[in-house]
Design a protein that fits this description.
The complex is a heterotrimer of chains A (about 160), B (about 425) and C (about 625). With about 160 residues, chain A is of the alpha/beta class. Chain A has a single domain, classed as Rossmann fold (3-Layer(aba) Sandwich). Chain A has three helices and five strands. Chain A has a five-stranded parallel beta sheet, covered by helices on one side. Chain A is globular and about 55 Å long. With about 425 residues, chain B is α+β, with helices and mostly antiparallel strands. In chain B, the strands form four sheets. In chain B, strands 4-7-6-5 form a four-stranded antiparallel beta sheet, covered by helices on one side. The longest helix of chain B has 29 residues. Chain B is globular, with a radius of gyration of 21 Å. By secondary structure, chain C is mainly α. The radius of gyration of chain C is 26 Å and the shape is globular. The chains are: A alpha/beta (about 160), B alpha+beta (about 425), C mainly alpha (about 625). Chains in contact: A-B, A-C, B-C. Chains A and B meet through strand 1, helix 1 and helix 2 of A and helix 7 of B.
Chain lengths: ~160, ~425, ~625
Amino acid sequence: MSQWWPLYGLKKKLTERKEYTSSVKLRLNTTGVFKRSLFVYIIDVGSSNALNFEISALEAPQYNIHRFGIFLTDSPRHADVLLILGHPVKKMIDPLRETILQLPKPFYTITIDDNPHQPDSVDYPELPNHIAALTGVPSPSQILGLLLDIAKTKRKES
Amino acid sequence: MKVLIGVIATNKSEQLFILDNGQPVLVQANGDNLEEKFGNYPILKQHPLKINDEPMKGPGVFRFRYGPVTAGVREAGCFHLYTYGEKILRATIDISWKQREIAKAMQDKSPETALMMAERVCSNFAISHSVAFGRAVEMALDAVPSLPTKNWRTLLIESERIYNHLYVIYKLASAAAQKVLAAHVSALFEEALRLNENLTGSRYLMGINNIGRLNRMPTVTDIQKIAHGYRELAKKFTELYKHSLKNYNYLDRLHSAGTLTPAQADKLGLTGPSLRACGVMDDLNDATEHLISLPVITQKEGDALARMEVRAEEIVNSCRYLVDHLRASDSWNEAGKNDTEFAKTGGTGYVVVNSPSGALGYYVEVKESKMQRVEIFTPSYPGMHAVSHALEGLIFTDFPFVFESFGVHFADAAS
Amino acid sequence: MKFLFIAAILLFVSGAVLSSKTRLSYLFSFLGSVSAFLTGCFALTQTQVLWSFPLLQHVELSLYIDHLSAIFIIIAAISWMALALYSIDYSKLYPKKRLPLGFNLSLLGMLLILTAHDGITLLMGWEIMTIFAFLMMQGTGKSFEHSYRFLAFGELSTISLLIGFAALYSTVGSLSFDALHNGSFFVLVLLSLGFIIKMDIVPFHGWMRGIYGEIPDNTAALLSAPVTLMGVYGLERIIPLLPNNQLWDIIIILLGAFSAFWGGLQAAAVDKIRLLPAYSTIENNGIILTAIGFYALAEGSGIQGLHYLATFAMAASIILVISHTFSKTLLFMSIGHAKEAYNVHTIDQARGVWSGVGRIPAIGIVISALSFSAFPPLIGYAGEWMILETLFQSYRFPSVALAFSSALAGILIALAIGLISFAMIKLIGYTALGYDHGRKSRPIPNRLMHIAEISLESLIVLGGIGLPLIIMFIGFPQLLTGLLAIPAPLVLASGIPAFGVISPTFIGIIMIVLLIIPVLLFMKNKKKVRKVESWNGGIKLEDAEFFTAPAYSQILEHILRGFYRTREKKSKTRSSISVEDILIWPSEAITRMVRKTGERLSWILMNGKISAYVAYILVLFITVFIIGMLVR
């Protein structure tokens, strides 16, 4: 019976922690609007791909982000938070601006700059509601902690 | 067999960077029938950033643009798919959206700084880039790294191979809507990244390699735990993989999706597991001096299923290699002997490394201990050409299978 | 009423005479149509003989107007009025004399058909209508062969009617419609065949493909709506003959249903959008044919319980006729309006009518397309739902063969409605409400076009919501009832004992109520609205990246490639898909054979040699001589 996909691995318990903390200081005040769910849209403006892989790792069962109500969306029009990955490349500035225009209010933007000293680079454009700016390649736990901070949710039960 | 890795233009002539029976060789281009000898010569010479850019016309034909900001393929890259409804007539891939010109920026930097930049070309191939660059500089400066350095580098390359192949299988399973399989494979993927962190302190194996040496050696006490971790990974993966192959729905979606013949793969200059899936027995493994030589896995069909099968077997082989040699590592892991003296301050070096997606080549010229010129030849560039050719004639629903099965990345292709 | 009728005829004739002044000519045709309309209105309550003229012994020419004629005259006259108004504005752009001449006389022919009471008058009107419609096509067509094909099919229908009436005379001794119920099976087959050919039922639709792209818009509308209406009228006239022949009834039910299915199938895959309404005509007429056939079948089976069902089927056919005539006229007018305003050759290039041309033609396209797709509460929904409910009650037939064939017809018609919705979405989504690609329209005279469009749009909507009124007007008040909370007579019951009900009135009321409340709520909490570009992956959509109309139907063309014989032509830089309508092969083959034979014969006979010509004359002379001698 364990050969049947719906029952496969049912006995394994992969989800790990119940709480995630983050040391990132939030630049803006948060609202309680996103307490029950937070929808995140990811945009890559020129990262070195490690951040993309970290987001894929964040979708792994060990973190189980869906239990916190955190979902990754397919369109910026459904998003509450725009997660900007990477140090921007000049060509991606206009698409980034266009994406920000599509976000419905209220929304936040987060930047993760994996290569602050990239040569011949441009800076981020003026970002509205820029709530957090990280540098380097944070681990999925740190990203999850940050998202939970923004959503103002620290679930005690799983 | 001879594979053309890259074309290096000098102000007088051209040099061809060839991988000949597993050894990198630089040959002067003598101008006659280069296209017959090497099918991918025109592609590498012109190096277009808009791949397969020939528009298709006809009544009702339009250009469906996927990108540069998408949720499916998260990276910044654009697909222009010409179609008259359901079928992809031509796929033009625009990789210029992620072009950071890192090779050019490495000029006049010290080798150590440039190595850190090399790691950031495509961070999921960080150790491959780092090792290739490091060995190229060592070749240019006539430096010989110590035995532990060499051995650790081979082990780390296999670590990188494991998590990259797991990522490809995770993406294929998600595309086929096999949610349970995808979840379990992604759990293994996260495990692999954690083992990387245990091994080197960085989940992507960044910041551990250096020119002629490693920045730090992994400590002996953790080695047994890490070896055990890889053994468990191999066991869980084998069980999961065997189970997934029983699902005909999953196999059916991958079977015959994006088939490439060996002749087509040769014309595009494809290397790596995607080439081996077409049935070509390459000698890329010889580019790295492994402690014991790893078996070359091939399949015959050349479709997405074959590419996945090659990768699945390579995961298990790499895990086994790691387990065996991690356990035996204390025999060659001596403390100290870290500082290597460089005999020269300038020179030319060229190296090919067996990265998870194929042959990764670096050509460097060093002058007075500063980088004079760096040329990077990544496996994703011919890989993108292969994706473009494999997509022709397919329907849209097969798009994610073909793209994910090649394991190519825009960051790597654009560099 | 006689006065109005004569006025109509005179107005049409004057319009034809004055055809050099095109606007005046069309104005006369409008007035003639109004006069005809009023005639019909007055005739609703009284039957009248308008004129009779004894030609030979037992043969009398007569013009007669009764309830059935009146209904059809009213329906046709509304379409004529709208087309005449449209043509007044249209004539400014196409001042060719042949068009108004043909238009007026074609309308005259149709009026004659609708008031004829014997075979000869009917055939006179039939021929006048066909020939002058052909003349209208000659006005702007490029290739003669295609319009000759229309004439060929028209004459085929005339021949069929001619032989049918001749057979009637030989068996019954009279050509009057009063004697029709005595006709034999042979008469029935020939007469109904003649009318079916005029209705463009498959496989007699082969002439459309070549000509429809080129003819002027009012001609196309005329050929689709009023001309095929004549075929339906003819069938309704020979209704007394139909119930006695079960085999023929089953044949026409299945033929109609298959024709509907085929029309829907081809409409979904047309490459020239002008052919889409043409195939929709085939589809609608197929459904009407099935409705009439079902009435005959139910009535002829003699079972008491089926009498209600038969009445319902007859009502369905008339509602379908109303909905088809109005919607088709409106569709062609709106499409033509858009084409002229954009000044393009094909409707494929005229996209985004709402933003590029104007609201009213766009609403015209939308409403007529929705009516064809059976969207409540429009009148098209009423007609198509009525026929579906009728056919699904086929279990009431005791005989398995009858039940099975009716059920099969129901399946085919349901498929047809689905396919035609698919096709109509192309018109709504691309032509009417789509992106206009920056095209600008030129100013054209459109005040009368707008009046015609608005009146037809209102008729389609009000006709749906006011369905009980129309049912009463056409004389079937017994079908109306009340149900639960809905008061009589707002509900149309499709069977007794109860099977299903149709009430577009009620749906209309609910829709309006459900529309008003949200609008009021919305006005109360006025939220700030922000307009942004559509999301297309971060950069603006270029012209070459817009989804094309052929791409929309390509998926269907691929799945049903057996029906369409879909072929792909691919080269390194060009690729295209071609589909075929395989049911036009017979007529194409016959045309080719005729042409070849004719060429062959003329090559043999007229080869330039005097001796051959003399021999030909001699042979003919001798043959005539011999025949004359034999006859004596």
